[in-house]
Every structure is written in C-alpha cells, then in structure tokens.
Design a protein that fits this description.
Immunoglobulin-like, 6-stranded mixed sheet, 9 strands, about 130 residues, disordered N terminus, mainly beta, globular, 3-stranded antiparallel sheet, single chain
Length: about 130
Amino acid sequence: MANYSSFSPNDIEAPDTQFSEVYKYVKGDTGPQLRITLTDEDTGTATDLTGATVKLHFRAATSTTLLFSKTLYVNPGTATTGVAIVNWATGDLDVPPGTYHGEIEVLRASGVRETLFDVLQFKIRDEFA
C-alpha cells in the first residue's frame, strides 16, 4: 500500500484517523502547489505511478459531503518517483475559513484502487482583501 512519505500520526481530532501535517492556505488562493511523494510503507521505496491516476477528495472536517475531487498531475517522465502534484484551480480553495480534510486515492493502470489511510489536513483562513 502506498503511503505519503511525510505523514506523522496525529490523533487529536479523532482516535481512528491519522492526519498529516496541517497545510495552510488563504481562501481563494491557487498556490502554492502541493507536492506529494507516495512511498511503499514497508520498504520506503517510491510508488511507481506509471499509468496511474491520483486523486484528491476534499471535504470540510465536519462533513461527509465532498466539496470536490481533483486529479493530481503525475509527470509521465518521472512517474516511477512516486510524485504527484496538486495544482489548485480557481475556486478550489474559495471555501469558508476552517479545517478541511483531503483523501488521496490511486487508481493503478491495472485497475487496482488504493486509498491512503492517512488523511491530509488543511486549514483555510479568510483573505484580508
């Protein structure tokens, strides 16, 4: 199973959910990009993403309703390095200030679907102007 290499467990919000570090953004921003490196949790080697589709499912921390799902960019020339990039689009982060969760899903070329157990955590604050 793939694992995001920078996750550190944090059981503050829910006893059965492991969170990554908190990624902080301002409402309406379209950057910076988020670079995710997927690795095998047993061996630490990069997950080969050749032919795979990697998605981020995004929702408010207090909700079970998805706000959006987006396909991450995987460079075909470096897919064997396990790197996937979240390129924020206009409107993605145009959400009320608060805490949000992201789930990473990998659909391999073989049809195998893997969802990372650890959850990405986002904190969005309001913009000044």
